[in-house]
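Task 17 of the worksheet. Students: predict the tertiary structure of the chain below and write it out as structure tokens. Keep your answer in the requested format; marks are given for formatting as well as content.
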Amino acid sequence: MSKEYGSRTERRLREAVQHNSKQDEELVSDNRTTIEEEKDEAKGGVIKRTPRAELEHQSEHFKINSWLSYFLTAGFGLIFSFTFYSFPLTNNFATPLQSEYLYSGFAMNQGLTPYNDFFGAGGPLFYLLNYIGNFTGSSIILYFIELIALIASGILTYRLVARQTFSSTAGLIIAGFTMAIVAGLGRGGAAPTLLAFPFAVWAVDFLDTYFHEDEKDGKFVVFGLFASIVFIISPMMSIFFIVSAVALLVFNLSHLKIGRGIYQFLSVLFGLLVIIYSVSFYTLNDQTIYTSLEQSVLIPLTQFGMTGDVLLTIAKAIVLVLVFGIVTGFVHGIVQIKEASSATIWYVMLLVGAVLVGLLVFIAPEFDSTNLLAIVPFLMVFQGRSLVNAIDDKRNLLLAYLQNKLFAPILAVIFVFASPFVYHWMNQTTFSSEKAVVQYVQENTTTDDHVYVVSEDKNINLLSERTATIDNVPSYYPKKFKQTYDLNVANLKDKLVIIQAGQKVPSSLSDTLSKNYKSIGSNTGEFTIYQLK
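Model answer:
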């Protein structure tokens, strides 16, 4: 990158475009006759810019708040959102993880409590949004919530990149492909990381401005608010805020800004407490304050070790980080450290944080591809600046971006639209069996009856609109959860128990089935149905 964003030249340029029209005309007139050369005192280099290049930067800056750009960004988001499993008209059979998230919203509307009646890896606010999203009896409201989160992510990305590059074209390109990344890694929309992502992008833009332009401290209250919101939606995504806070601490100490650091800390703390107190009231009312922390924070941070087909998991993870540009984004970050100037500490911490989150995702007992989205905020700040040379050389920005990403964005877009259909095709036998089971359940039970399903997903419960009184314990959960399950399953009274072929059946459940249930034939393919005697 030939010019460093945040130098005195560009800061003066930003100030100049905010003046009245008369001052702008005077600036243009002066620049038509001279070539400006200013000394960058912070870095010690000489920055040269032709009048034409400077005017082009100004004209592009005026387009940052263009409603047309926002409209186009929203249009891209709408198109990508049609792949969400919460959109009832496009997908009826979700992936295992997505079906669990969608089922949670339905179950809460039937009186069940997250973390107590069913297990959950998301934060309390995530399940509250799922509850609201299924309030009408379908997931259509949840779809609009996810759509808003996706479009907000795109618009905030556009503003970040347009501010960095003074190019609305660059902003649109990166915003569009970023929404493809969000939709792709969100794997159907109903994921904690997707709903938390726009808050993280705002924080990236705020901190980028702060480190480069010495932004005022007033917005640190908002930073604290958003940090706490992200924590109660997706604890994995909140690692970005923790890493950034550490960078701020080191930055203030190294620059002897002790008083300013204390003010920032108090501002952030105030923002955190506002949200934490509100959520504490909600979790205390539902008696989930400890169970929510345990299942969404403590267990993921204490239970490690990949299970199942380890080689397949590693292969999937490698494909995803390559297709969605995480590797190339990390490389861009390494290259830009030497030009970071006052943001050097933050840049280094961002790269360290990206590696940390990546390791947490890879060594988790159950690989959750949606958590890879938590790596993306660490790399967002590098994306716009990777196009600065292309802008200065007047190259085609779309082609330059694709080349910088080794053309992975094209694969990402294909993945977003193809993956739901490919997944459905690969599992069509299972989905056909599930459809037969759903029909049987609806014909032989009422909405007041409970149906317990031991399966890879929650599609049967979700599509038949029947809840279960107990939930399957994840294999990596501590022993006490399995002991509680054994006690509960001994008193199981659900009208039907449905078991998918190949699923491991706990001995306590086998005993209960032999004592209290009878097997019935129902033409359901891979599933066996047991009815209460």
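Marker's comment: The beta strands are 36-40, 45-49, 451-454, 496-500, 517-520, 527-532. The longest helix spans residues 258-286.
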